User: Which sequence fits this backbone?
């Protein structure tokens, strides 16, 4: 079964007969397309793609908020219906999201008006650990945004856990990238020892120092969050993540 067919099936399954159509209601328009059985499956898919991809950023996020309000199952982090948010996020990342900076996209993470299922889907769509062309400010922004969202007690346990998963993967990929570009930094990075970094001021050394700090902080905050969360499955997941990073340091090595 194709991803598109799965999402379409989920959406059609929850459609309410007689749902009133309003021309200014994007979610209703979206639903009307998905309900239109006079169109072939491929035609409905194409229309949905064009509809959502044509929206600007404010309208798209307004659509996401409206969808979450009108179909609460989209906001259930453990439900298959939440996968619909991944469908929306993939279109956003290749549509309105392309016109904004990474920092602007990450600014959605602390936005309490957006559902956590959307934020989780957005992080998946961004594929942060597969991007090898990030600038130093972008790398710092990713680390900061994911760390803050993961530590925030205002967020759900599942969303916090997902943020730490993405952060761990991102730190690992950045560590690999920088040691490929500057092999002489590998030993200091692997030992988390900033004092072993070369005494020169260049982008690689600066980023290596920030990565060392971030990796040390990651382990500390991961342990703290694992102790805080109430969900047993999330707690087990966080502890599994922690086990891959070794002992928790008292403080980062200066």
Assistant:
């Amino acid at each position: 079964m194709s991803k598109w067919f799965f999402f379409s099936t989920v959406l059609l399954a929850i459609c309410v007969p007689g749902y009133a159509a309003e021309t200014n209601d994007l979610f209703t328009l979206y639903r009307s397309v998905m309900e239109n059985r006079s169109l072939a499956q491929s035609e409905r898919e194409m229309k949905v793609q064009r509809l959502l991809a044509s929206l600007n950023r404010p309208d798209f996020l307004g659509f996401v908020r409206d969808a979450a309000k009108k179909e609460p199952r989209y906001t259930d982090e453990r439900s298959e219906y939440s996968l619909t948010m991944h469908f929306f996020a993939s279109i956003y990342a290749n549509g309105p999201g392309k016109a904004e900076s990474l920092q602007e996209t990450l600014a959605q993470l602390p936005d309490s008006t957006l559902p956590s299922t959307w934020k989780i889907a957005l992080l998946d769509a961004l594929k942060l650990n597969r991007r090898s062309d990030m600038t130093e400010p972008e790398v710092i922004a990713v680390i900061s945004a994911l760390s803050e969202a993961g530590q925030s007690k205002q967020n759900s346990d599942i969303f916090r856990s997902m943020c730490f998963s993405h952060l761990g993967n991102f730190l690992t990929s950045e560590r690999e990238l920088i040691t490929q570009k500057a092999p002489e930094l590998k030993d200091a990075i692997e030992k988390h020892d900033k004092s072993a970094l070369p005494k020169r001021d260049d982008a690689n050394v600066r980023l290596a120092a920030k990565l060392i700090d971030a990796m040390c902080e990651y382990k500390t905050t991961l342990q703290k969050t694992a102790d805080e969360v109430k969900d047993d499955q999330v707690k087990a997941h966080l502890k599994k993540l922690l086990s891959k990073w070794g002992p928790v340091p008292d403080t980062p090595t200066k």
The mean pLDDT is 87.
